[in-house]
Amino acid sequence: MDAAVTSLVAVFAALAGSTLTFLFQRHIARQTERFTREQQLRHERIGAYSDFAAALTDFRRSQNDRWHWERADPDSPEFVSARTESYQRRADSTAALCRVRLLCGDSVLAELAQDALDATARMQGARDEQDRSGRGEAARLALDRFLNSASPHTH
Description:
Layout: H1 2-72, H2 77-104, H3 107-121, H4 129-150
Helix pairs in contact: 1-2, 1-3, 1-4, 2-3, 3-4
């Protein structure tokens, strides 16, 4: 009888050990999967936020060029080219903003990104050099606010 009880205990112990090993491995696999997803999202956010900042910086530069060429000679081919480039840079910035909005998952952050794009678009309406410079600085600061708020989402 002792041999039967010993065998039964051994089978039960082996079964319990296998079950615990399975549960532990499943837990580890889920943690690994979650970590991998979080890392992938982190990398995608870094890419989207960086691309948005680069696109917006290019848009701001093109807005400055457009403004200066328009003051110099609004009928010149240089102005037409600068205006066309600013339209393209705005489109690029808008596309980058869409990607930010899809990835950020935070309405405040999306609003800060939109504010930065809007501030950059307003540069073209400047009345004089001082106004243009002030609007350019406002656009730069709006982008900084977005980046400062986005930073914790990338750690």
